[in-house]
Amino acid sequence: MESPFIKEEHQIFRRAFRDFVNKEIKPYWEQWEHDKRIPRDLWLKMGEQGYLCPWLDVKYGGSGAGFEYSVVIHEELSRSEVAGAGGMGVHSDIVVPYIYHQGNERQKEKYLPGCASGKIITAIVMTEPEAGSDLAAIRTTAIKDGNDYIVNGQKVFITNGITCDLAIVAVKTDTKADPPYKGISILLIEDGTPGFSKGRLLEKAGAHSQDTGELFFEDCRVPKENLLGKEGEGFQYLMYNLQQERLVSTIGAQATAEYVLEKTIEYCKTRNVFGRPVTKFQHNTFKIVEMATEVEIGRAFLDSLIEEFIEGKDITLKVSMAKWWTSEMVNRIAYHCTQLHGGYGYMKEYFVARVPGDVRLLTIAAGTTEIMKLIIGRMLGL
Description:
Blueprint: H1 8-24, H2 29-35, H3 40-48, H4 67-78, H5 86-102, H6 105-117, E1 122-125, E2 141-145, E3 148-159, E4 166-172, E5 184-190, E6 196-201, E7 212-223, E8 227-228, H7 234-270, E9 272-273, E10 276-277, H8 282-310, H9 316-340, H10 351-359, H11 369-379
Parallel strand pairs: 1-4
Antiparallel strand pairs: 2-3, 3-7, 4-5, 5-8, 6-7, 9-10
């Protein structure tokens, strides 16, 4: 199914980027799974080719390209068989937009060129041990002291947390605000700032090559000029940018479902059991047909959503629907595709064996399935 917004120039770009992925990413999955991170030199190669933040204005080091190019990049990274490559997508289309949309000109000129080149790796730092989906409950504080903020607190489950050069950190600048979310602000905190330290590289159930860490702030002194936007408006910034984060998550889920099904159909056509291909058993045919139908439904919904996003429409309701449904769908696809591979589906050398652990994250990150349903319910007036 061809996406209506993808034109010939985007297909040319896709072919070039797919070649890059096949050469620079796919062959190294095993080493990067072991290392639990993507090497910095890949970030620099991505930046050199213009594959990081392609939407950025030329004056900030980008190409000024449309969101369609970001879609292609996310889809091809999802087909790379290296879940950790998604961390580069998080950087490009989830974290850096905070600086672009809410940052002042000084901040943009200081950080954005490095974000586009791969010299600056970013992380969005929201989640805490006692505050996940309930962002208003964060406890990390930033108290004014002269021309600085003094930051204290702990963050966890941070994508790119260990390798990041710049952390976009949600903090409480007013601990007495009522309601609490009005006390949230966002600070730009550079790696190496005294009092800012990085903890464990976390062990996860999947997506092992994606760097996920915990961060600590202990009397960390941050200049007031590193405040992103206005004090007390951080929660609004988070809500605004979360819509694109959920769209990016949906794109990854859909593309992964398509790819793992494609690989499974290829396998089942050539794998013989009891003297005939796996696909020649009626139960297996029905199972594949059911999955193919779900994947087509997901693609149609996603494409219409992307078109609305490109047109500048409010996608809050639909992206919440798409995020929960597609993330649950890819988990179903992963389970059944693994089953269709039999014993080989349990061998880590097969991508299909790694997928169930990798995609489990998608029902949790950027808002759990349950939180998405709460948002939808409220928007429906329930």
